[in-house]
Amino acid sequence: MSADAVPGLVTEPDAESIEPLLRTAMGMVIMEFYSPDCPVCQTIAPIIAGMAKEMTGKVVFSRLNTDAYPDTSVRLGGPRDAYLHLLLRRSAGPGLGRLRIRSGD
Description:
Elements: E1 10-11, H1 18-24, E2 27-34, H2 39-54, E3 59-65, H3 70-75, E4 83-89, E5 96-102
């Protein structure tokens, strides 16, 4: 899958395209680390899709399947299970901030 963020849509990068997406996205990236079997993930998917439409051009929304790419999730600082993860890329520096919300919380 392409690393390009599509305005108004939630992108689903693979293990190879997630890093370029995070490097090139300006501003905030909301990343959901999900599992297709996670009921909470299924519940919030349409909410996130609606937010992506409302915030087009301001925030990049993306999701990574932790079942398919557990090592990528861990490499990005996450666990091997599903949770919502907010990544903030600051335009003035390379740092990424994180907010984690586990589906069991």
